[in-house]
Design brief:
Length: about 375
């Protein structure tokens, strides 16, 4: 008897590997848009769980969350169709939250934030042990190219992790062609997002869609096949490096004396000499982490902000305070760098003259800097 189509087997194997540490009986949610990636993922998860149950082995319950972003006409119908496909695969429960995908940072960022918030809410309410996302190797490659175009550092270029918290991305090792082939082999009819195929000359299409439809195909044509896989491999290597640098930066921050101080005192006090003696790669990561600890929103601290903070450490000429996102100010005095919210009418330099604080470690900002 012939086995499943190779693409179907690859999806199922990827799902099985991603769920290896999820307790039997736990609920696993699939984030499904109805597109080929997430629909193939939903089918793979349903099969893996059902196969274990049919063999009498402890298995998982598999449900789905279909987020309606309400960004396109007919989005409600698309979401309903995706939900019906998930139910036909045997997934239960299937939820279809509608979200408000407006906010700062543009429509792509707002939609992403709203989607993850909806997934987090569903996972919390339903007690899910894992949420599966359908990102593929192609998505990873597109992210690397977008990061390079922005001049991003290693953390942003490291792309999406295979797992973080409840989120799992089983398909990062597979190509989009694999999910399309899996859907075709299984007789599934996925939805194809029209924004993923912008017309020639459509400069208003999302940047990721333009990279997907125009940039990557040109690279594959001019440089040969395998460009997407190579970019994804670079992301994996950069993630290993970024993780190591972040760990070393956390140790540096602890040595420099980062600490939460008493009420009315700065959130973070650092020994400037300790920071100055460190390599720039570690010092900059530690300074970004200190800013986040002091109250700056993760991801809001840009390269320019970090450069200004670094100047207080390595190019001290008596300059004034550095103002950071989240109404955080940083100032240097008496060899110490103080970061914290500065009350109106209070001189930020006064904070830097506060007494020494007890050391306490804090890991660098793991959100990267998408705006650099």
């Amino acid at each position: 008897m012939a086995g499943p189509h190779p693409a179907v087997a690859a999806v199922r194997g990827a799902v099985s590997g991603a769920l290896g540490d999820v307790p039997a009986g736990a609920l696993v949610l699939v984030a499904c848009s109805g597109g080929p990636d997430s629909l193939a993922l939903a089918a793979g998860a349903a099969f893996v769980a059902g196969s274990r149950a049919r063999r009498g082995e402890p298995s998982w319950r598999v449900g789905a969350v279909v987020v309606d972003h309400r960004l396109q006409p007919g989005s409600g119908e698309v979401a309903a169709r995706a939900a019906a496909a998930c139910r036909a695969l045997g997934l239960d429960p299937v939820e279809v939250p509608a979200v408000d995908a407006t906010g700062p940072g543009g429509p792509e960022a707002a939609a992403r934030d709203a989607r993850y918030a909806a997934l987090d809410d569903a996972a919390t309410r339903l007690g899910a042990a894992a949420v599966l996302l359908g990102h593929t190797r192609d998505d990873q490659a597109e992210g690397v190219l977008l990061g390079l175009a922005r001049g991003s550092g290693a953390r942003s270029l490291a792309g999406m992790p295979a797992a973080r918290g409840l989120l799992r991305r089983p398909l990062l090792g597979l190509a989009r062609a694999d999910t399309l082939a899996a859907c075709a082999a299984l007789g599934l009819d996925p939805w194809h997002d029209p924004t993923n195929s912008p017309a020639d000359g459509d400069a208003g299409a999302p940047a990721r869609s333009r990279v997907r439809a125009r940039v990557l195909p040109v690279l594959e044509q001019e440089l040969g096949p395998g460009v997407a896989a190579a970019l994804a491999r670079s992301a994996e290597l950069l993630r290993e490096d970024a993780d190591a640098l972040d760990a070393l930066a956390a140790e540096l921050l602890a040595r420099a004396g980062a600490a939460a101080a008493d009420d009315g005192a700065p959130a973070v006090l650092l020994d400037a000499a300790v920071l100055a003696a460190a390599p720039a790669a570690l010092r900059n990561r530690a300074l970004r982490a200190a800013a986040v600890r002091a109250g700056s929103p993760p991801g809001s601290v840009t390269r320019a902000h970090v450069a200004a903070l670094a100047a207080l450490v390595t190019d001290w000429r008596g300059q004034g305070p550095v103002h950071l996102p989240g109404r955080v100010a940083a100032a240097r005095a008496c060899g110490r760098l103080a970061l914290g919210a500065t009350p109106v009418g209070r001189d930020p330099d006064d904070a830097a003259r506060a007494g020494p604080a007890a050391p306490a470690g804090q890991g660098p900002d793991d959100e990267g800097d998408p705006q650099r």
